[in-house]
Design a protein that fits this description.
The protein is an alpha/beta fold. Helix content is 22%, strand content 32%. The chain has two domains: 93 residues, Translation factors (Elongation Factor Tu (Ef-tu), domain 3); 133 residues, 3-Layer(aba) Sandwich (Rossmann fold). The chain contains eight helices and 17 strands.
Length: 296
């Protein structure tokens, strides 16, 4: 085992659990999207914004599936996913009371900087869950002022709600929000190319650029960017953040076999002080400094 692998193993020791998770509820949304609440108390107690779980979808499948954690409670976690492939289709068919094996929480979390409390959270598609988790964490302290921009090219996995929370610098015709964030008094705005009412017809970066361009230099100095979604979106967000000279943390999405650093099947190329190196998304990430990622 390499020194890096040994350090990763030591870092996860005592914080990574395998437990039988009881499905508490299942919500089905258009576009083959599902939100499941799973009782997994040990995972819930240690989860941090940006971490994920590796779930056994069905006894007939030996391979687990990595899924981001969207919310945590005293003894439960919420996951949101889209049914792509046989594994997630089988998972979506599980009913309340059934048991699934949960391995987690896995991965390095987002690290908000108190010097930049105006956190811009950008989530696309199944990249929305980590942004919700991070928003939930940030709302615990009044000094944070998060704004969430969420995009989807299929119907959103929630009912659109007209926001009562003003967002300066954003077109007034872009008014729909995520109800949960609205309940938490965290402003959010939505984008899609599908032309949904109250949503910007465009990309998340279009709306983020609109908001950022309205800020003064002093205001920009208080902004940090956090994002999760498809790789093409992450690169566009990273480029946007670089243009405004903003720190940006990205949660990468990669196929994973073991999810604990053993197989090295989820590696990405990043710049380090010692030169370029391959890092494992599962244990070295999934959160990385966007400026270090070598985007292809």
């Amino acid at each position: 085992m390499t020194n890096a692998a040994q350090k990763a193993a030591q870092r996860n020791r005592g914080t990574l659990f395998v437990e039988d998770g009881e499905i508490l509820s299942v919500e089905a949304w258009p576009g083959g999207q599902f939100i499941q609440r799973i009782r997994a108390p040990r995972c819930a107690a240690s989860a941090t914004a940006g971490s994920f779980v590796h779930i056994s979808c069905d006894e007939s499948l030996p391979m687990r599936r990595p899924l981001s954690i969207m919310r945590v409670g005293d003894d439960w976690i919420d996951i949101l996913y889209k049914t792509e492939g046989i594994g997630l289709k089988l998972l979506s068919q599980k009913q309340r009371g059934e048991i699934v094996s949960v391995l987690g929480p896995i991965g390095m979390a987002f690290e908000p900087d108190p010097q930049r409390p105006n956190a811009l959270l950008i989530g696309g598609g199944v990249g929305i869950p980590p942004m919700v988790f991070l928003a939930d964490v940030l709302r615990e302290s009044p000094e944070w002022r998060p704004l969430a921009i969420l995009g989807s090219e299929i119907p959103f996995p929630f009912t659109l709600q007209k926001s009562a929370l003003a967002v300066s610098g954003v077109d007034s015709e872009v008014y729909n929000a995520m109800p949960l964030l609205e309940e938490w008094e965290i402003p959010s705005r939505l984008t899609s190319l599908q032309g949904y009412d109250g949503c910007l017809k465009g990309y998340v970066t279009d709306l983020a650029d609109q908001w950022l361009s309205s800020l003064s230099a002093v205001e920009l100095a208080r902004v940090s960017v956090f994002t999760c979604g498809p790789t093409s979106m992450l690169k566009a967000v990273a480029d946007l953040a670089a243009r405004y000279e903003l720190p940006c943390q990205v949660s990468l999405e990669e196929f994973m076999a073991c999810a604990v650093g053993g197989c090295a099947g989820c590696t990405v190329l990043v710049n380090t002080p010692d030169g370029q190196a391959m890092k494992r998304v599962c244990v070295d990430g999934p959160v990385f400094d966007a400026s270090t990622v070598v985007w292809e």
